[in-house]
Amino acid sequence: MKNNKNKVDLFKQYNNFSDSFSESVDNDNNVSRITFYKSLNFDFKNKKLLDLACGDGQDIPEYTRRGADCVGVDSAENFIEVAKENYPETEFQVGDMTSIPFKDETFDIVLSKYAIGTAENPNLVFDEVFRVLKKGGVFAYLTTHPMRLFMEQKEKNKNYFEQKNVDLVVFGGKFTIVEPTHTFNSFMSENFTSKFQINYFTEEYDPQSADFPGRDVYPDFFVVVVTKR
Amino acid sequence: MTLNLSKQYNRFSDIFSMVHDDGNKYSNRVFFDVLREENIQGKKILDLGCGNGTDMQYYKYRFGDNIYGVDASEKFIEEASAKKLNVSIGLFDKIPHEEKSFDVVVSKYALQTVDDFKDTYKEVSRVLKPGGKFIFLTVHPMRQFFEEKTKHKNFFQKTIVKSVLFGGKIIAQEPTHTLEEYLSAEFFKLFNLEKFIEKDDFYSAEQLNGDKYPTYMIISATKK
Questions:
Q1: Considering the entire predicted model, what is its pTM?
Q2: CATH classification at residue A120
Q3: Contact residues, chain B, for A215 at CB < 8 Å
């Protein structure tokens, strides 16, 4: 992969602004949050749920309210500290998406919002989710749309098929985060479709996630809901 | 709208036949490779949007004699009939065949002419046997978005876009689609997605802004 000097930093970058990030997410992240919650059209009652890359745990109240027994995992230690303070009843652990600190077939539900795209190879995450999920278990994720990753590369002669790191302005310019570009194909490879049965797909424009007055309207994120085969 | 767009090829069926083979040579190769991987030898196959039957001749040579075609353009069907192919005039949302009559439905560069896929998906599912395959190649939504060429484009707003094909030899008009329209709730209700492939073929499509982006996609699915 090109222009990628500091690999680990993509996962850990949130450590640098975890405090102000938490505030902004609460205020500004509504379109993606509403769309994601609406997509979670299945039973949570007494289900063992993993929130993968849970951040400061902002989604835990919703998942708990729906009746799930939640566990949160994030690679940023600062986030996990805050999450533990905010939700003392819930179990949180520091861990990477590509090496989830749980045994095989532990969870009924795995959810992940705006995180899987930070992995250069999403299949490494999908393989781990497949491992910790029970057979027939549900996996739903929301991630940055490949079209946005392509559109927001500033240079000429862009290549959709070539992976590189791109700066994404989020929350109306409050932060810039770095994400590797992805093709849609890398999320929908045969590795993925052979492991999971896709039940739902949606893509949305999120006017709050970026601030480019007069820009074209294209999807900023997509959501996929699948069951483990 | 569906009808008119499907029939537009009547106007340039002659020149189309000449440039089509050569112009699609890269995407053809990828699509035919996908079909060969599926082991559909000897199966009963429907080519939806068969045009003048060029692909059907290839399918006959590869997969046996049980090949049928449907197209909305009378001129194409005339041409295909002259090649002694089993073809009939019909629309995608009204396929002139009995239910559960095919093992495989294939469709190449045709689905994008349809306004709303809901009825097409239902029809394809209807004519497929249980466990039958639906394998189609269509214009990538990103390509349609760039082909709008206007400022303040909206990916989610349906418009008719002019596609310059085969180095300007043909200009086709097609409704724009989002990815979600293809991978809709209706689709997942009827089909199990097995393969998704997106690639570029700027030999047949116009390359805009000097960028490299997907111009077509292939979806391979099984009837639920």
A1: 0.89
A2: 3.40.50.150
A3: 152
Contacts of A103 (CB under 8 A, 6+ apart): A132
Nearest to B155 among A158, A197, A218 (CB): A218
Residue A159 lies in a domain: yes
- Give the ipTM of the model, two decimals please: 0.87
Report whether A221 contacts A206 (CB < 8 A). Answer: yes
DSSP string covering A31-92: HHHHHHHHH--S--TT-EEEEET-TTSTTHHHHHHTT-EEEEEES-HHHHHHHHHH-TTSEE
Sort residue A187 into left (φ over 0), alpha (ψ -120 to 50) or beta: alpha
Contact B198 A197 (CB under 8 A): no
Domains of chain B: 2-223 (3.40.50.150)
The answer to whether residue A118 is domain-embedded is yes
**Exposure string (b/e) for A157-167, b if CB count within 10 Å is 16 or more?**
ebebeebebbe
Tokens of A161: 């098929």
- Candidates A198, A199, A212, A228: best to mutate against B (most CBs of B within 10 A) is A198
> What is the total count of domains within chain A?
1
Contacts of B219 (CB under 8 A, 6+ apart): B134, B135, B136, B138, B182, B193, B195, B196, B197
Distance CA(A138)–CA(B15), nearest Å, equals: 51
Two tokens at B172? 């086709």
Q: What is the pLDDT of residues A64-104, one digit of tens each?
A: 999 999 999 999 999 999 999 999 999 999 999 999 999 99
Contact A50, A71 (CB under 8 A): yes
Number of neighbouring beta carbons within 10 Å of residue A82: 21
Flag whether residue A158 sits within 8 Å of chain B, measured between CB atoms: yes
- Lowest-confidence region among A109-113, A188-192, A196-200, B162-166: B162-166
Helix (H/G/I), strand (E/B), else coil: A147: helix
The residue type at B133: K
Determine, for residues B192 and A205 on separate chains, whether the beta-carbon distance falls below 8 Å: no
